C-alpha cells in the first residue's frame, strides 16, 4: 500500500504575508485529513514563515527548486542544506524550469542526488509536450526523463522518491488528462522504467503523482486509478477550499 501524497506547488505566488494567511486558512482543514501526505511548496522567501506555522502539524514543507552544489559562487541559487533547514521535500525538474530556465535531464539528476544526500524527498517531474503527445512519443519521453534523471540513485534510497507525471499540455491549461490516460502512462512506462532501474519491488513502492489541472471536481477521477498515488497541484493549491478538497479526495482513495 502506497500512502497518497498531495503537494501544492504555489509557483511564484504569495508574499510572506499572503503565504501566512493562506496557510492559516487551510491548515485546520488539512490537519483533519488522515492517510495522505500533505505538502505545501511556497516560494523560497516564504519558507521560514510557513515552516514556523507548520511546526507540530502533519503538513510537510517543500521547496520548488534547489542547486546541486553545496555552496559557493552561484549567485541567485539556493543550496541543498539551505533547503533542508526548513523543508522535507523539494520539487525537481518542473516543466517550467525545464522550459524557461534551461534545466535538463542531467541537471535534474544532479539535483536529485543533492536532495537525497540531504535527506530531502525529491518530487521529480516528468511529462511530454503537446507535440510529443500528439505524435505518440509520450512513452519515449517519460522513459528518457526517468532513466537519465534518476541515473545512479542508490536503489536503497529509491523507494523514498516521488515522481510527478505532468503532461505539459495539461499544466495550467484547465485541460487535464483523463484518469485512464494518465494511469496508462504510469502503468505502461513510468513504473516499468523504475523497475528496470531499481527492481520491481522498489518500483511498486515509489509514489507517482499526476499533475496537470487537478481540481476538486476531477481529483477523484485520478485518485481512483490504481497507479496514481496523489497529485502535484498548481493553480488549485492557491485556493483553500480546492486544495483541502483535493487532499480529502486522496484520503478516500
Ligand atoms: C504544476 O504546475 O505542477 C501544475 C500541475 O499546475 P496546474 O495544477 O495549475 O495545472
Helices and strands, in order, run as: EHEHEHEHHEHHHEHHEHEH
| Strand residues, percent | 15-25%
Rg (CA only): 17 Å
Count of alpha and pi helical runs: 12
Please summarize the sheet with the most strands: 8 strands, parallel, barrel
What class do helices, strands and sheet pairing give? Answer: alpha/beta
Mean pLDDT: 97
Bound molecules: phosphoenolpyruvate
Explain what you see:
The protein has helices at residues 16-31, 47-54, 80-84, 95-100, 105-117, 130-134, 138-149, 155-158, 179-198, 200-205, 219-223, 240-251, and strands spanning 5-9, 37-41, 59-63, 89-92, 121-126, 162-165, 207-211, 230-233. It is of the alpha/beta class and 253 residues long. Strands 1-2-3-4-5-6-7-8 form an eight-stranded parallel beta barrel, surrounded by six helices. Helix 3 links the parallel strand 3 (59-63) and strand 4. Helix 5 (105-117) packs across helix 7. The relative contact order is 0.16. The model has no long low-confidence stretch (mean pLDDT 97). Bound molecules: phosphoenolpyruvate (PEP). Phosphoenolpyruvate binds next to strand 8.
Amino acid at each position: 500500500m502506497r500512502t497518497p501524497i498531495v503537494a501544492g506547488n504555489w509557483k511564484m505566488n504569495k508574499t510572506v504575508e499572503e503565504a501566512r494567511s493562506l496557510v492559516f486558512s487551510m491548515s485546520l482543514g488539512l490537519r483533519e485529513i488522515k492517510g495522505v501526505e500533505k505538502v505545501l511548496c511556497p516560494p523560497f522567501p516564504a519558507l521560514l514563515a510557513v515552516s514556523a506555522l507548520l511546526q507540530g502539524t502533519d503538513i510537510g514543507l517543500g521547496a520548488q527548486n534547489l542547486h546541486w552544489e553545496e555552496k559557493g559562487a552561484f549567485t541567485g541559487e539556493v543550496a541543498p542544506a539551505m533547503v533542508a533547514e526548513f523543508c522535507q521535500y523539494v520539487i525537481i525538474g518542473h516543466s517550467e524550469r525545464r522550459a524557461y530556465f534551461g534545466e535538463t535531464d542531467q541537471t535534474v539528476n544532479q539535483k536529485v542526488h543533492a536532495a537525497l544526500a540531504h535527506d530531502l524527498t525529491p518530487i521529480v517531474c516528468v511529462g511530454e509536450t503537446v507535440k510529443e503527445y500528439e505524435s505518440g512519443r509520450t512513452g519515449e519521453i517519460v522513459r528518457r526523463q526517468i532513466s537519465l534523471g534518476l541515473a545512479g540513485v542508490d536503489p536503497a534510497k529509491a523507494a523514498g522518491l516521488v515522481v510527478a507525471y505532468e503532461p505539459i499540455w495539461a499544466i495550467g491549461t484547465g485541460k487535464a488528462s483523463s484518469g485512464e490516460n494518465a494511469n496508462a502512462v504510469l502503468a505502461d512506462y513510468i513504473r516499468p522504467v523504475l523497475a528496470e532501474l531499481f527492481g520491481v519491488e522498489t518500483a511498486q513502492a515509489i509514489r507517482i503523482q499526476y499533475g496537470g489541472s487537478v481540481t476538486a471536481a476531477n481529483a477523484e477521477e485520478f485518485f481512483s486509478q490504481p497507479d496514481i498515488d496523489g497529485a502535484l497541484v498548481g493553480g488549485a493549491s492557491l485556493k483553500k477550499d480546492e486544495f483541502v478538497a483535493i487532499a480529502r479526495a486522496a484520503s478516500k482513495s
